[in-house]
């Protein structure tokens, strides 16, 4: 792959990689695409390759290494047929998604990956499946994309990383930010190449994956372009700085370079402002009409009119069918359902998108039409449910302040923050590292301590210890703090298991 800090050759064991998968992380411009290209070029002779290419950067592999370039702008049936024949005949290919909208990119990639995954058993030959910009196809949270496209892409990526090994598929995924990548997809990789990154939360996650402490995580800010820290059975048993070597092929796009402007022509005004004939032939772009602001009284009048229509003309109920819920009943159902999901034994270790689908399915079972909550509202309400807040505390001014402060942290940390805030408002002991880790969905207590450091760096909490050495968390914005808590205390059920064993 390149050279180490001691100028030794840095190698990657392809056979081991086929069984253990690889995750590459680094900010834009850190050299991820260069690393993937080096890996593809060095292993092209030894293993079949499939590249999911959102920007069309890897199509140049075709000229030197004979990869088949597949344009993803095809029907679903065509993509399935091509994928089946690729596995049957063991042809390396690049699926270029360039030119497609993000929703169509996700659908095409999902169709192609699923077809590779579902190939006949006699065609389960080893394939290196490289996915660039993996956060697009396995997002940690729902964005402004169609829900069906997001679910299809996330399911295909989960199959690739979780179940693909037995079918010969070895996933190599690259992402700009670990925080944007679905946890259940990232967690399946056993090999890591971590490049330059600047955000504290991403550095903490990268350091945790590599078994580093917080001080060592600072090195990710100082990495040069093309330099990575490697760890894994296919790379190194200890974190190893690696500089990626040169490549034979180049991307069609490259980083922008400074170029001097041409000499300004004398007639620049006429040159630019004089219309050309094709300008008049081009159809005008329709302008979106800006809706006029509506008064609150008008909205209330429409709602009252709709309510009166429902009261005067109710739809006849079908025998044995549940009547539709009122607004109050629906809100009560939402609260009870969220509490049930949050109380599940594996709730914290399941992705928010998976829990959201469970929530929607329960709603359909109760004949609720549409989505009772949007994805963002569901995530916040679930974080509140996980915090264990009671009705009295939820009505306090301090809790309302805590909800406002929670918007300053990432979605995945809101539940942890609100749990700490609830403990402070109720003057309860500060949660232990094990409790914080479970609230986040991890078993790493070291990661839990980093979350507290992150909150303190953001100015949200102040950590200190009492005279017994127990940890306290104070919230300056609403003048409350927890009681002293044992940071190393085990979970309640683990403590109970130990006592039962004794």
Automatic annotation (TrEMBL):
UniProt-recorded Gene Ontology molecular function terms: ATP binding
Region of interest (Disordered), residue spans: 242-265, 306-332
Domain AAA+ ATPase per the UniProt entry, residue ranges: 18-305
Record InterPro entries: AAA+_ATPase, AAA_16, ATPase_Atu1862_pred, HerA-like, P-loop_NTPase
The keyword Metal-binding is annotated on this UniProt entry: no
Pfam families registered for this protein in UniProt: AAA_16
Residue ranges of coiled coil: none
SUPFAM superfamilies: P-loop containing nucleoside triphosphate hydrolases (SSF52540)
Record keywords: ATP-binding, Nucleotide-binding
SMART domains the UniProt entry points to: AAA (SM00382)
PANTHER family: HELICASE MJ1565-RELATED
Protein name, as recorded: ATP-binding protein
């Amino acid at each position: 792959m390149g050279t180490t800090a001691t100028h030794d050759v840095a190698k990657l064991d392809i056979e081991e990689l086929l069984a253990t998968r690889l995750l590459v992380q680094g900010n834009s411009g850190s050299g991820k695409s260069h690393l993937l290209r080096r890996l593809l070029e060095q292993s092209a002779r030894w293993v079949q390759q499939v590249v999911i290419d959102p920007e069309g950067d890897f199509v140049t592999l075709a000229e030197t290494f004979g990869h088949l370039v597949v344009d993803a702008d095809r029907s679903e049936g065509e993509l399935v047929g091509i994928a089946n024949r690729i596995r049957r005949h063991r042809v390396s290919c690049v699926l270029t998604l360039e030119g497609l909208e993000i929703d169509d990119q996700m659908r095409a990639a999902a169709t192609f990956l699923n077809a590779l995954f579902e190939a006949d058993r006699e065609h389960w030959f080893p394939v290196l499946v490289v996915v660039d910009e993996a956060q697009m196809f396995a997002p940690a949270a729902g964005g402004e994309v169609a829900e069906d496209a997001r679910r299809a892409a996330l399911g295909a990526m989960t199959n690739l990383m979780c179940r693909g090994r037995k079918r010969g598929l070895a996933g190599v995924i690259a992402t700009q930010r670990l925080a944007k990548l679905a946890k259940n997809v990232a967690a399946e990789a056993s090999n890591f190449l971590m490049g330059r990154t600047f955000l504290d939360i991403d550095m903490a996650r990268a350091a945790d994956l590599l078994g580093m402490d917080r001080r060592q995580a600072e090195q990710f800010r100082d990495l040069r372009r093309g330099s990575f820290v490697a760890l894994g059975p296919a790379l190194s048993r200890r974190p190893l700085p690696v500089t990626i070597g040169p490549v034979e092929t180049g991307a069609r796009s490259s980083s922008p370079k400074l170029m001097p402007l041409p000499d300004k022509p004398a007639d620049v005004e006429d040159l630019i402002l004089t219309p050309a004939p094709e300008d008049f032939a081009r159809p005008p772009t329709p302008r979106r009409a800006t809706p006029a602001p509506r008064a609150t009284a008008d909205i209330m009048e429409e709602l009252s009119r709709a309510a009166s229509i429902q009261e005067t003309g109710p739809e006849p109920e079908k025998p044995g069918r549940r009547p539709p819920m009122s607004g109050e009943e629906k809100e009560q159902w939402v609260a009870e359902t969220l509490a049930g999901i949050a109380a599940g034994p594996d709730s914290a270790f399941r992705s928010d998108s998976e829990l959201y689908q469970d929530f929607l399915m329960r709603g359909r079972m109760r004949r609720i039409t549409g989505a009772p909550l949007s994805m963002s509202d569901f995530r916040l309400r679930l974080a509140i449910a996980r915090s264990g807040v009671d009705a009295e505390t939820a009505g306090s001014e301090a809790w309302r302040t805590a909800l406002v402060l929670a918007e300053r942290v990432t979605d995945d940390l809101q539940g942890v923050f609100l749990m700490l805030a609830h403990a402070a408002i109720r003057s309860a002991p500060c949660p232990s590292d094990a409790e914080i880790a479970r609230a986040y969905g991890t078993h790493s207590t070291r990661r839990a301590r980093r979350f507290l450091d992150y909150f303190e760096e953001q100015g949200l909490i102040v950590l200190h210890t009492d005279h017994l050495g127990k940890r306290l968390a104070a919230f300056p914005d609403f003048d409350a703090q927890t009681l002293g808590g044992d940071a190393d205390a085990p979970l309640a059920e683990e403590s109970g298991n130990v006592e039962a064993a004794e």
